[in-house]
Write a structure and sequence with these properties.
- The structure is a single chain.
- Helices cover about 40% and strands about 15% of the residues.
- By secondary structure, the protein is of the alpha/beta class.
- It has two domains: about 160 residues, Aspartate Aminotransferase, domain 1, CATH 3.90.1150.10; about 250 residues, Aspartate Aminotransferase, domain 2, CATH 3.40.640.10.
- The protein is globular.
- It binds pyridoxal-5'-phosphate (PLP).
- The site of pyridoxal-5'-phosphate (PLP) has 13 residues, from α4.
- The site of pyridoxal-5'-phosphate has 13 residues, from α4.
Amino acid sequence: MSESLPNVTASNALYAQARERIPAATMLLSKRPELFAPGAWPVYFKRAWGSKVEDVDGNVYTDFVGDVGATLLGRADPDVNAAVRNVIEHGNFCTQNYPGEIELTELLCDIIPCAEQVRFARGGGEADVVAIRIARGFTRKDRVAFCGYHGWHDWYLSANLADDSTLDGHLLPGLRPLGVPRPLAQTALPFQFNHLQSLKELLESRPGEFAAIIMEATRHHPPEKGFLEGVRKLADEHQAVLIFDEVVTGFRMSLGGAQEYFGVTPDIATFAKTISNGYPMAAVVGKKEIMRIVDEQFISSTYWTDAIGTAAALATIKKIRQTGAVEYVWELGTELMNGLKEAISRAGIPADVQGWAPLSILAFQDENPDVAAAMKTLFVRGQLSRGFLSSAMHYMMTSHTREDIQAYLSACEKSMKEVKHSLDKNTLMEDIEHRPSRPLFKRLT
Ligand SMILES: Cc1ncc(COP(=O)(O)O)c(C=O)c1O
């Protein structure tokens, strides 16, 4: 390798300490260094601004991993931060409620097709739990048909109680649902993306028992013509609440989310991540007829009333709307996807680019997953040595510039050539010091 890997001694020392004191070391699976380039990945940051980050060792990178989708406007956005500072100065928590909640509710109802009423939470998985509770309460039914990833909670992981391969295509292969009560078995059942028949058969296998169908409307792959419309029809036929999990697609694919982009309106939708540009916030929005069941339920939490997330969401959504941020990340992301495809073809490596311009995926391909993981690791190491944080996912931010894209693509070209060279010489494992990354989420959607 021509350039050398950054020195990440301080990061590695902190990580060793974390592994002693924090079980599973990081609170979010997608922030574990083993998923990128074990030993070489800068695990801890000192400062993050725009698309740049300085790690605890003092190395500065341009980041294309993009905060797992949490910050469309880039880190430390001045307008979002000003709104947050304002509520901090005036008191962000109080006996009374923050009126910004009402303004945010009106804004969401104006933007999102299915939104007539809104509840707030502070995380994506949490918003999904709320949506499922509402659907079960409204329909007085228990079972849930799902497709895609929906967080870490019992209702979802229970899918693996009967068979621990159920979540393989939606979350992680072979995940053991340790700690999830066994009586929940068979309450969450999967269907396949772009396979309407699999949903039809599932719903017909237990007629009248499904409270909800929850899905990501897209992730890596586009829905085939008629698929989402078919899901909508099946939900109506089976009187199940249709929930779109828009934790990733919301305010990113389109201001009104995937439902606006594809023109299919669910009954309920959940939002987090981009909604507040890195501050904790989530929303569950939906049709009044269904949402008002909450009046009869117990769905309540202290920090759902904090003003920081609400103020951040108001500032974020207004800025995304006013500045055409979604259009910008589509434009830049398209340039990135096209450039990646060209670089792959010039380097002659087995890889593909999938997904959508605001969220694209670089997938290294080999029938042996270990070889694919080793190729990805070598690529990530190459990019690190050239000053970029890379992984399989590229979440675009408005702080990325055309120059960033060009510099990134030129680094990709070199890193991909290194992968090709290693493949040809059969030295992949030596070249990554026998430390391949582990697969993260393996998704079918
Ligand atoms: C589609 C989807 N739903 C739910 C979640 C969970 O959100 P959180 O990590 O905020 O709980 C994620 C997180 O990546 C997600 O991608």
